[in-house]
Write a structure and sequence with these properties.
Layout (H helix, E strand, L loop, with lengths): L4 E5 L6 E7 L3 H6 L7 E6 L3 H5 L13 H36 L1
Antiparallel strand pairs: 1-2, 2-3
Pfam families: PUA_elF2D
Keywords: Coiled coil
GO molecular function: translation initiation factor activity
Length: 102
């Protein structure tokens, strides 16, 4: 959503390195092809705010990409359901057509 606070993450780390505020909603970000400034950074790792604090290191844990496997399984399941429904619809149309011809 527009003007929401959000975390800023790197592609390969599951932990955020900062916080920011969105300058557009998700649909606008998508339609712009993720080009332009979608987030205004408010605080980042090793910035001035970090320097006045305890200066702890950002935890690093390699992002597990299993989410995509689950997403792909869900997509495959949806495709199978859609194909089964389409097949049922075609069979129903064929039966109706045969009944009308006979």
């Amino acid at each position: 959503k527009l003007y929401e606070f959000c975390s800023i993450c790197l592609d390969d780390n599951r932990y955020p390195i900062g916080i920011g505020q969105t300058t557009m909603d998700g649909d606008d970000m998508y339609m712009s092809g993720m080009k332009g400034r979608g987030i205004i950074p408010l605080h980042l790792y090793q910035d001035a705010l970090w320097n006045i604090g305890p200066r702890t290191e950002v935890p690093y844990e390699k992002e597990q990409r299993q989410l995509f496997i689950t997403d792909q399984e869900k997509i495959n399941e949806n495709i199978e359901q859609a194909c089964a429904q389409a097949s049922d619809n075609i069979n129903t149309l064929n039966l109706n057509e045969e009944a009308n011809l006979g």
